[in-house]
Amino acid sequence: MSDLRVCPRCGTTIEEFRRTGLLGCAECYTAFREEVLLTVRRVQGKTRHAGAIPVAKEERYSLMLERQHLKEGIERAMREGRYDEAKKLQQRLKDCRQGEDEE
Ligand SMILES: [Zn+2]
After folding, report:
1. What is the mean pLDDT of residues 52-63?
2. Entry pTM
3. What φ, ψ does residue 77 adopt, rounded to 5°?
């Protein structure tokens, strides 16, 4: 089974993500969403005895990953002078945070 998914923005392939566990930009998270969730499951499986993770926790972890990713993207965009993109990412980060506040 070959999986040729590629992030439309930075060109990171799903193969690269599998190998390194790293996403190239915030879009990767969207492009490889299923794979990211699988990876999260694998990581948690190693550290926890319980097999099943409540969906809420998994979602939270995904959100955390995405926020971290957005922050990195913002920093990079600022460094490279791409302020429009930084602004867009900041807006997305804000959206993520709003979800988090609802305990
Ligand atoms: Zn990407």
Report:
1. 69
2. 0.42
3. -60, -40
